[in-house]
Amino acid sequence: MSGTGLLTFGEALAVFSTQSGKLRHARTVDVGIAGSEAMVAIGVARLGAPAAWAGRLGADEPGAMVLLRLREEGVDTSAVRTDRQAPTGLMLKDFRNADVTRAAYYRNGSAGTRLCPEDIPEDRIRSAGVLHLSGLTPGLSDSAAKAAFAAAEVANDEGVPVSLDIDYSHALWYPEDAADILYDLVSLCDIVFAGDDAARLLGLDGDPQELAAGLAELGPEQVIVELGPRGAVAELHGSRYDVPHYPVRSVDTDGADDAFVAGYLAEFLAGASPDRRLRTAAACRAFALTVPGESTGLPDREELKTLTRTR
């Protein structure tokens, strides 16, 4: 491994959300940030590992807020590019209950959709311990897809492990468009996270263990299929694992999958055993479920001890 820290590359957005009810009835809103890769960076930083996020933001107040929030969390943003020709993307979110949230995205023509291979911080990739991507980024635009592949290829050339959360979104592209691109991207990765639906999007079939084995056959040595409240299954370095779900009172599922990824990658960077990586990932997901918001519930090491009783 050529480095010690996490580098993520992708889109980040400003979020305006209600605490309950429809946005039209709200008199005040919560202000925050979102974006799968950025949330993973925050999660890894809270667990004590170096983390950096790279991407493109507008030269506006939402973009300034994204940078401020990331820096407050200890995330390195020195590789972020400012786009003076496009705004930062926005998400408006209604929060009804743990099972019903509605999000409206305003990202057409945003800075994030203008990501391109020239935005790739090649020197930062070479010095990273792991590069993390998500399947959301290639769905933003053709140039963003090229950027994601360019980043993975630089990492492959330098021997830097590449992590991918497939994280397919029907709001960004059609399944038939996503399948071929994500299939090719998986083949460049060392670590892959996928929900069972995302694995089937790539043409795989069977039970979760068979899905994990199918993804591993595409090239990754570490595959984790997340199953929500049913836990997860994994195939790591040729061995199979069942990952239990920590029973908690779920308040908001947004950000839970990113928390899982962050927990796993933080332990991977620390050189932890496969079992430890998976237990920490499951615990981080459980914490994220207990409070509303994308990053609010991401735990630190002290909080993890209260659930896992591990040190």
Automatic annotation (TrEMBL):
Residues 8-300 form the Carbohydrate kinase PfkB domain. PROSITE patterns: PFKB_KINASES_2. GO terms for molecular function: kinase activity. InterPro entries: Carboh/pur_kinase_PfkB_CS, PfkB_Carbo_kinase, PfkB_dom, Ribokinase-like. Keywords: Kinase, Transferase. It comes from the Bacteria. PANTHER family: CARBOHYDRATE KINASE PFKB DOMAIN-CONTAINING PROTEIN (PTHR43085:SF57), HEXOKINASE FAMILY MEMBER (PTHR43085). Belongs to the carbohydrate kinase PfkB family. This is Sugar kinase. It comes from Saccharomonospora viridis.
